[in-house]
Amino acid sequence: MFTGIIEELGEVLAWDRAGDSGRLTIKAPLAVSDAKHGDSISVDGVCLTVVDQGPDWFTADVMAVSIAMSTLGERKVGDRVDIERAAALGDRLGGHIVQGHIDGTATLLTVTPGDAWRVLRFTLDPEHAPLVVRKGSIAVNGVSLTVSDAGDDWFEVSLIPETLAATTLGTLTPGDRVNIETDIVARHVQRLIHFGAGALESPSGAVGAFAAGSVGIYGHGGSADSPATGGNA
Question: Where are the Lumazine-binding repeats (predicted)?
Answer without folding.
Answer: 1-96, 97-193
